[in-house]
Write a structure and sequence with these properties.
alpha/beta
Length: 436
């Protein structure tokens, strides 16, 4: 099946006008058709047959249905994201580049801004397969594409669509009362209307994070639970989940028993998140559970032993106690190659710390890179305050610490801005005359 097709014209008025000036009567549909045919070339170069990949075939069929004017269409952005997820797991650079080109081609059916990335990765495939003589030709095609896809100056958005602004929540975007202030919400919504691409990377689950952010017009998927999950709130779907291995789960449970500790265990099954506890004898843990039940209506389930849960669905452990009690558990598990561990102080108390345990394949760094790829961004600007934001900074092109940040985070930042009590994140973004 050929990917060549005519689809709905791009929605950017300036882009339509620029292409129409070329004189082609059906230039807008040809723009998207070019992206799809270029992706097809990349797939052929890599020896990938669309029929062998259900998501690619589904995306092609969706675009053909769009051409016919069918009313009942699947979410092309979601299908494109699934193809991009295939690219992240393919060890062949050539195949990965071709899959990325195909993923962005399908995404371009939902938003024409993804089309430029089709060119980027298709040309990468050309260069990998035909280095040398083909380089100049590929570079010329890229320049031609850029000249077509650049919006006209009068409608140029204030913020580059290729830059993602990614913020931590507690201690960073949220004020000292763990709320998003009305001023920050209003300012960020206005900036999003001006083209700001904004998202969050938090240790919280969606049940609390999205409730706190109610009214904020987020326009990108969010990273939850220190990067364990990428969640598309607009469609209520998890785009990526990093599960713990059964062996890692068993090691954590054994270490907890040996040290006389307990906490919370999180399980994701059939798209539903469940949170378990063994007991609430610890006051910090009891206060944590009761506050989330009362404020957010979150459900917690008691089980006799964590070992009763199905290990293949476990994604996360969280302990809340003093640093002295949690540090030995961290040290006990530090050599487990399948585990990621973060020990950091609670923003809202004087002597309590969190120890969070998750897959070694998950972190705020990995989540930021995933969001960067999913959205087709070239740059990430990150905001943080605590030690679990250091991995986030590793993936960012520009790093900002709020004024109340941990000294280590301040030292790792490119710039220190106003505190979370001063709406530092929103104020800093709004103050940029030439946004990154």
């Amino acid at each position: 099946m050929s990917i060549h097709t005519k689809i709905k014209p791009p929605t950017n008025a300036a882009l339509r006008a620029r292409i129409d000036a070329l004189g082609a009567p059906d230039a807008p549909p040809l723009l998207a058709q070019w992206a799809l045919s270029t992706a097809e070339q990349a797939l052929r170069l890599a020896g990938i047959a669309p029929l062998d990949h259900p998501d690619i075939l589904t995306g092609i069929n969706a675009l053909l249905a769009w051409q016919r004017g069918d009313a009942d269409l699947p979410d092309m952005r979601e299908i494109g994201f699934r193809i991009l997820a295939l690219a992240r797991t393919d060890e062949s650079p050539l195949r990965a580049a071709a899959l990325r080109a195909a993923g962005y081609a399908v995404c371009s059916g939902a938003h024409s801004g993804h089309a430029a990335n089709v060119s980027r990765y298709a040309l990468e495939a050309v260069r990998l397969l035909h280095p040398g003589d083909r380089q100049a030709h590929a570079d010329e095609r890229l320049r031609q594409w850029a000249s077509l896809s650049e919006p006209c100056a009068p409608e140029r958005p204030r913020f580059s669509p290729k830059t993602l602004y990614l913020s931590d929540l507690d201690g960073t975007l949220l004020n000292p009362s763990a709320q998003l202030s009305a001023s920050s919400r209003e300012k960020l919504n206005a900036l999003i209307e001006q083209g700001l691409r904004f998202s969050i990377a938090t240790a919280r689950t969606g049940a609390t994070a999205l409730r706190i952010l109610d009214g904020l017009q987020l326009n990108e998927p969010v990273a939850l639970m220190n990067g364990v999950m990428i969640y598309d709130a607009s469609h209520g779907r998890y785009l990526d989940v990093r599960y713990l291995t059964a062996e890692a789960v068993a090691q954590v449970i054994a270490a907890l028993a040996e040290l006389g500790l307990t906490g919370l265990m999180y399980e994701l099954k059939d798209g539903q998140l469940a949170t378990y506890y063994e007991s609430l004898d610890s006051k910090p843990l009891r206060d944590f559970v009761e506050e989330r039940r009362r404020v957010f209506g979150k459900r917690f389930e008691q089980i006799d032993r964590f070992a009763e849960a199905q290990p293949e669905h476990v994604i996360y452990f969280a302990m809340l106690d003093t640093q002295e009690r949690l540090a030995p558990l961290r040290d006990r598990l530090a050599d487990c190659p399948d585990l990621g561990l973060v020990l950091y102080k609670d923003n809202y108390s004087t002597d309590l710390w969190y120890l969070e345990i998750f897959s070694a394949r998950a972190s705020k760094r990995e989540a930021a890179l995933a969001l960067k790829e999913l959205g087709g961004f070239d740059r990430v600007v990150g905001f943080g305050d605590n030690l679990n934001d250091l991995p986030l900074f590793e993936a960012c092109d520009y790093r900002l610490a709020v004024g109340n940040a941990h000294p280590t985070v301040r030292a790792a930042a490119d710039e220190v801005i106003g505190s979370n009590a001063e709406d530092g994140v929103a104020r800093w973004i709004d103050a940029q005359e030439n946004p990154l």
